[in-house]
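Why does residue order matter? Because the sequence determines the fold. Keep that principle in mind as you read this record.
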Amino acid sequence: MRILLWVLLPLAVGCAHPRVITDITTSGDQAKFIYNRLNSGENGVIQCDVDAEGNLTACRDIPITWLKKGE
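Structure:
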């Protein structure tokens, strides 16, 4: 868990609005972290590969847009 925090902390804190991780999902060799940026309304997903030792690698930011029902 400590390794997870060291990887996510630089991704979650930046010069702009900080990211708040709202959900974490894992499946096989991937982990996804859903976040909201404070005071901006921006949402996104950080997707990482998980190696055999449980370390996160190849993390990438995937912006997402929520659509209202019927759009």
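Residues 2-12 form the longest helix (11 residues).
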